[in-house]
Predict the 3D structure of the following.
Amino acid sequence: MITITVVHGWRILRQWLRGPRFWLTAIAFPLLYAGVVNLLFGALVRQFTGDFDPADATILVAVSWAFMLCIMGSGDTLSERDSGIYERFATMPTPYAAALAGRVIVEFVRLIIMMFTLTVVTELVSGSRLLAENAATVIPVWIIVAASAACLGTLVGFSIRTPQGAVAVIPLIVVAMFVNTAMQPAENYRPALRWLAELTPVSAAKRAITESTLAGWLPLLVWSGFLVIVTVVGLQKQKGKVGSH
Amino acid sequence: MFVVPPLFLLCLVGVFGYSAEESGVDYLRYMLAGCIFQAGMFTSSASAMAVAHDVESGILDRVRLVPGALAGFLTGRLVVDMVRMTASTVTLFIVARLCGLSLRWSEYGLTLLWGLVAALVLCLITDGWIVLLDKPVAAAASVQSFEMLLFLCSTAFIPAIALSGALRAVIEHMPFSPIIAVIRNVLTHELSRGGTIEAMTWIVALGSVGIALIVKRFSGRSAT
């Protein structure tokens, strides 16, 4: 099973690395987005609150773009499904889970490349001290976020029937991009929105990085655990559908 | 087109509205203009995709065989786009109204009018660019991302006073910002005469380039 997982994952990764889309979506766009958040939204937050930490911009972009990227990747999964690759896996003696695991792992690798490139470049360019001061927490948080986002992307890729289906998830990511405590402190939100700002994945990641206590890690662990469980259950159902063809 | 601009309006007013009100800024009025322009962007990217499909499937070449039909085709396309933009803008008005915005009927009308002008110019430039390309459908898919990038680097969401130096000059005078400022002027009554002239210059320039590109593409001997 391990060999099939690696072969399937490597095949997808090689396809990605050949085209410009990988470099644009995993490297260029998140860096541009980080620039916009730092220079423009940061200036606005600074005007209202007097302070904006570039490290917060890195957390915001790394986590929200991880979810955006995994949703973009679900279109590729749909193409592979349409071309019948996963039906062929289902007819092989190797466990079907190998194909799914390959997809999750390669998505995880792409997200890790994106998150660490972004963190290092913003550290060099914007003066963010995220990795320098919090390496012990940033690395595990990035791994957990990338793993849960990779699971979500794979689940969406196996659940949609048209490329437009993935678009339905994007409004939720847009909300998470703006409503969080990395953009500005919760007390600057309308009172009715403060609880939501505290709960979104970006806020959970920021809390885990800045608070090294179990209470600080709990929201992130709940989010990632929820996404992994939903993915495992969802893909089990998908496996049943493929097997019944 | 009907979901994302209202969602941006709700999110950003939710995120910055409270702090802005504390600072004496009516961020809802400020944001509405940016979201109307964003609706125009989505209208133009949908228009570009529809035109791209018509070019690749050969419909446009068949239309060209009938004398005078091409002008009718393009006019029809733009009329449909303006109807979509109107529906999108009305959706934004309803959401803004639910958030507490109160406007006079004349302000609704003028804001809609400027929104339509902005959408028309964006449709002309994107459609004009799309019809010149070899693979229009693939290019049309990236129109929205490119427009969104420019849009984020404008004064749509960020007041120019929050910026300084060269960055402020660039953001304030990039093509989208003056046009958004004209739409916003109806809501806030703050635009200078120079700002209006700059916006009109961009509108005329972008619209003319769009028309020139379409004429260039269809005045040739063969469409493909």
